[in-house]
Amino acid sequence: MDIRIALAGGGTGGHLYPLLAVADALRETAGPDMRLSYFGPEHALMNEFERRAITIYPITSSKLRRYASFQNLIDIPKFGWSVLEALIKLYSEMPNVIFSKGGPGALPVVIAAKWYGIPVVIHESDAVPGLTNTIAAKSAAKILLAFKDAEQYFPKGKTRVVGNPVRSIFSARGSDQKLTKQAFQFDPEKPLVLVLGGSQGSTRINAFIIDNLDQFLPALQIAHQTGMENLPNAQVLAHTGTSGLDEKLREQYRAYGYLSADQMKALFDAADVIISRAGSGAIFEIAAAGKPAILIPLSDAAQDHQRANAYAYAATGAAQVVEETNFTPHLVLSLIATMMKDSVAREKVRAAAQAFFKPNAAKDIALEILSAVK
Question: pTM higher than 0.85 for the full model?
Answer without folding.
Answer: yes
